[in-house]
Write a structure and sequence with these properties.
Layout (H helix, E strand, L loop, with lengths): L1 H15 L1 H11 L6 H13 L3 E4 L6 H11 L4 E5 L6 H5 E6 L4 E6 L6 E5 L6 H13 L1 E4 L2 E4 L5 E6 L12 H4 L4 E4 L5 H12 L13 H13 L4 H15 L13 E3 L3 H17 L7 H12 L4 E2 L1 H5 L4 H11 L4
Parallel strand pairs: 1-8, 1-9, 2-5, 5-8
Antiparallel strand pairs: 3-4, 6-7, 10-11
Helix pairs in contact: 3-11, 9-11, 10-11, 11-12, 12-14
């Protein structure tokens, strides 16, 4: 009976995820390469998870989220974080109207579907916490009134890995609220050649047409939740997370002096959700171990604290995750 149900579910997910291919084709008219980033944006969109993006300037971070917003007919807003930014600059404030002799609400740029928080680590803690509160609660309080943020609501916060002078790094408790931390690399030679050609041509970038409506994204979110996950896959996820907390129990005693703290319960929740979304993007109605492994680095890399010993030996979170994945038994 269970196999029949899974087969029916597989067919249903295959139909529900039909828009993914069209969306990829539409974004490819503007974005050259960067499939990993686009896939992670879609995973965040389908699971209500926000994304922390780390990459050098000029790697199409802004263009990618703007293009995706156009493709699903959604409102896009970009906030450039600077040291003199105030919370009111993000969420909005009360403005006095002398003609009406009363205060009126002026909503800030947070009231959009896609928010690009550019260089979030350039702003002080009070501004960062205002954004993170809106991300967590999905509502904003201005004066005495509370205003819900419209769904779909996705925050893409970027961090520049260079020029760290005068920045305010996000505390661990706040980075943990981001579902994924995605690292963006340079394009290949062929991709960069195509980028140059497109920018030199008269018609430099294709125009993106809305492929799907916002309500279809909300429907797809419920479909992602229905993707089947076997108990063995659940146990695999728990084992991966616990191996970062108690490495000695998994035959990883050499990692013990390198890990300051392991991944939080949010890692387990987000790893399971992201694995379901990964299966959905592959147009499959069930999760396989490869889905978990594909998404694991992006979910875990900002949730593992390194000791001074690890930093002295140039050991990164990626190295630890690789070792965990190579050791924990795959179902």
């Amino acid at each position: 009976m269970q196999s029949i149900d899974i087969e029916a579910l597989n067919q249903q997910i295959y139909l529900d995820s039909a828009f993914v291919e069209k969306l990829n084709q539409e974004t490819a008219q503007v974005i050259v390469g960067q499939k990993h980033m686009i896939d992670r944006l879609l995973i965040g969109l389908l699971t209500k998870g926000h994304i922390l993006l780390e990459g050098l300037p000029g790697l199409a971070k802004t263009l990618a989220i703007k293009t995706l917003a156009q493709a699903i007919n959604a409102q896009f807003s970009r906030i450039q974080f600077t040291p003199d930014l105030l919370p009111a600059d993000i969420i909005g404030t009360m403005i006095y109207n002398p003609n009406a002799h009363e205060f009126a609400v002026r909503k800030g740029p947070i009231f959009a579907n896609f928010i690009l928080a550019d260089e979030i680590n350039r702003a002080p803690a009070k501004v960062q916490s205002a954004l993170l509160e809106a991300m967590q609660e999905r509502q904003v309080t201005i004066g005495l009134e509370t205003y819900p943020l419209q769904e779909p609501f996705l925050v893409l916060a970027t961090q520049n890995p260079i020029e760290q002078e005068g920045t305010y790094p996000l505390p661990e408790a706040q980075t943990d609220r981001f579902m994924l931390k995605v690292k963006i690399g340079y394009p290949t030679k062929d991709e960069e050649r195509e980028i140059v050609r497109r920018n030199l041509s008269d018609d430099s970038f294709g125009k993106v047409k809305p492929i799907i409506e916002q309500k279809e994204i909300l429907q797809a979110r419920s479909s992602v939740r229905k993707v089947y996950m076997d108990e063995k896959i659940e146990q695999y996820i728990i084992d991966i997370v616990f191996a970062t907390r108690n490495p000695q129990e998994y035959g990883l005693r050499d990692l013990e002096p390198l890990i300051n703290y392991g991944a939080s319960p949010r890692a387990s929740i987000n790893l399971a959700l992201a694995a379901k979304a990964e299966a959905f993007l592959q147009r499959r109605g069930f999760v396989i171990p490869e889905d978990v492994r594909n998404i694991c680095h992006d979910v875990m890399r900002h949730r593992i604290g390194l000791t001074y010993e690890a930093e002295a030996e140039n050991i990164t979170q990626e190295d630890i995750i690789d070792k965990v994945l190579n050791t924990v038994e795959v179902p």
